[in-house]
Design a protein that fits this description.
- Two copies of one chain form a homodimer.
- Chain A has about 220 residues and is an alpha+beta fold.
- The first copy, chain A, contains five helices and ten strands.
- The interface between A and B is medium-sized, with 27 and 27 residues.
- Chain B binds a DNA duplex (27 and 27 nucleotides) through helix 4.
DNA sequence: CCAAAAGTGTTAGGAGTACACCCATGG
DNA sequence: CCATGGGTGTACTCCTAACACTTTTGG
């Protein structure tokens, strides 16, 4: 009656103006040397969430992420070794926290752009597709987008996040008006010098303000 | 490394103008004689979805339902017998298909109104709360509401489903205009005689038409 | 002074919401 | 003819979407 249970975490970040996902190269069969979503077997004394975070840390060195359960995959033939149930998670991290640490199991962890993915092991292609759908949906009615940015960011950067995930361009004026109308950004007396042109104002995400808006429904109707 | 995996299915219906959920009385410890969400251990040779359907049939006689995976619960102390992961589902059925069959394990299955629930075993109260949130959300951007009605239904009946789930009254004129604008109903040359007053027109849910609208986002912004 | 990105306002159309009366039926 | 629930139209507001020019900076 017992079943082997694994977790797998689809972790996204924005790099080079594009959505990327973190993959690991498998060192053992089955699917040896193929790319897979980081994860592994759940231990006796840890919850599913804890497993997901531990595996992510061990295999890629990544920690301090936004984590959310995605879906559980339990078809009979998804693992050639036999019956395995995988609880999939999706996670978001900002570029500045997304560095892979050497000295972990992360010898073969690598960020891949979503539009140039390798063949994936198991049914991980399905899991990844599902994670992308979920991310796009959540972007429209939550503030998960901010998880992909450092604590201080500019409005053009925020817009880039939305455009990279949704895969289409947004009107700059409408985007700014919408975000500002939510009242969840605190403007700082600081300007980014990242672009070599006119500096853009920096903002904070004022999460506390947002809590009051939560149950009003859709927040980002792009 | 193996873990006991159960499924549990929160199944809703509309009865007496109110949202009801199907519960079963436990016959064995732990939580003997307390009420629980129907479910049980997954078998080796069935997928998670299949387990959910089988347990529902065995314990309550209910079949032919709309079924959707909800969330997996994996905290360490949620079952006094030890580590158990539960994959929760939520299901919808119309009143006319929702009769409990005798001769099954359903000796102690019973529909409870959501506003008058008994104490629940395990963390099933949490699971039920989560299912209700999900149902309310899905009602707004999908057509799951139709799953709670027989194949032929009137607009007042449909409105009742929405009101029972959302817990508030909706404007009759706006509701009808909205539903009709979606073009997913086929009016029939038949009228319901359920009410003892003026008969209401019967409609079909024209699912095919709906497929084209799916990716346009929110459909039921009540 | 030129190129490039930041930043700003207005308008038209569609959707949501609020609201009141007539119609068909059974008793 | 009356009580009950079925059925319809209109006006206002707000949100969305489309659209172009000015400002700031580095080179």
């Amino acid at each position: 009656m017992s079943i082997r249970v694994t977790v797998a975490t689809v972790i996204f970040t924005i790099r080079d103006r594009a959505l990327h996902v973190l993959l690991v190269k498998r060192g053992v069969p089955p699917f040896q040397d193929e790319w897979a979503i980081p994860g592994g077997f759940t231990k006796e004394n840890e919850s599913l969430d804890e497993s997901a975070l531990r595996e992510l840390r061990e295999e890629t060195g990544v920690k301090d992420v936004y984590l959310e359960q995605l879906y559980s995959f339990g078809d009979l033939r998804r693992d050639p070794r036999g019956r395995v149930v995988t609880v999939a998670y999706f996670a978001l991290i900002s570029q500045d926290r997304a560095t892979l640490e050497p000295g972990t199991d992360a010898v073969e962890a690598q960020w891949y752009p979503m539009n140039d993915l390798p063949q994936l092991a198991f049914d991980h292609g399905d899991i990844l597709s599902y994670a992308l759908v979920r991310l796009r949906n959540k972007l429209e009615y939550t503030t998960v987008g901010f998880q992909l940015l450092p604590s201080r960011f500019t409005l053009p950067e925020l817009q880039l996040v939305y455009e990279a995930i949704l895969g289409r361009n947004l009107d700059k004026r409408n985007f700014r008006r919408k975000i500002e109308s939510l009242g969840i950004l605190r403007p700082l007396n600081a300007w980014s010098k990242e672009s070599q042109r006119r500096p853009a104002r920096l903002y904070n995400f004022a999460a506390a303000k947002f809590e009051k808006l939560k149950d009003k429904g859709i927040l980002f109707p792009f």
